[in-house]
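Task: sequence design from structure.
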């Protein structure tokens, strides 16, 4: 086995798990899940069938990633993040053929207790604030906060909030806005 699994974790036969991944206490990975290399699944994490996690994805404690969710490389899911996969759930109505896909693009970060309503795409390196409720697509590098989530700024690839000069204070990377989208111009 090229990954670590805590003795209380359940990995269903058929699940694909990349090298160097660590799966901690009381987590469950379903049979058709695909988890990349060097991922970390914290305590009490559920990874559903047909979920795909890229390389270096960090899933903090108490997160359920349901069928229909894809997370690309370098995604961060904070503690107790909530994903949905049905818009109008009812206990008495089977809607497994109505799952709406959710795509979390490379480098995106989702803060603790945020809710991501199904059917949206979160752009590269976007940052969702703790407790936000995302109901619409998110632009790359956008910072969203609140309920419902609204864009309140821009962030760099390293997660620093950008000022008016659109230069990352940590890395010196320079950005510009073209057609309402943030673009990296120098890094």
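Answer:
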């Amino acid at each position: 086995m090229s990954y670590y699994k805590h003795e209380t974790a359940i990995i269903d036969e058929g699940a694909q798990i990349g090298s160097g991944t660590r799966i901690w206490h009381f987590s469950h990975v379903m049979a058709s899940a695909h988890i990349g290399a060097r991922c970390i699944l914290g305590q009490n994490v559920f990874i559903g069938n047909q979920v795909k996690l890229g390389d270096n994805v960090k899933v903090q404690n108490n997160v359920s990633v349901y069928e229909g969710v894809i997370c690309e490389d370098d995604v961060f899911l904070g503690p107790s993040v909530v994903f949905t996969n049905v818009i109008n759930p009812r206990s008495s109505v089977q809607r497994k053929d109505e799952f709406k896909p959710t795509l979390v693009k490379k480098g995106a970060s989702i803060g603790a207790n945020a809710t991501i309503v199904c059917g949206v795409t979160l752009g590269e390196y976007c940052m969702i604030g703790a407790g936000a409720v995302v109901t619409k697509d998110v632009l790359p590098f956008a910072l969203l906060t609140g309920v419902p989530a609204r864009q309140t700024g821009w962030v760099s690839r390293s997660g620093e909030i950008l000022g008016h000069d659109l230069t990352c204070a940590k890395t010196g990377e320079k950005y510009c806005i073209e057609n309402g989208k943030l673009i990296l111009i120098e890094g």
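The CA atoms of residues 61 and 172 lie 33 Å apart.
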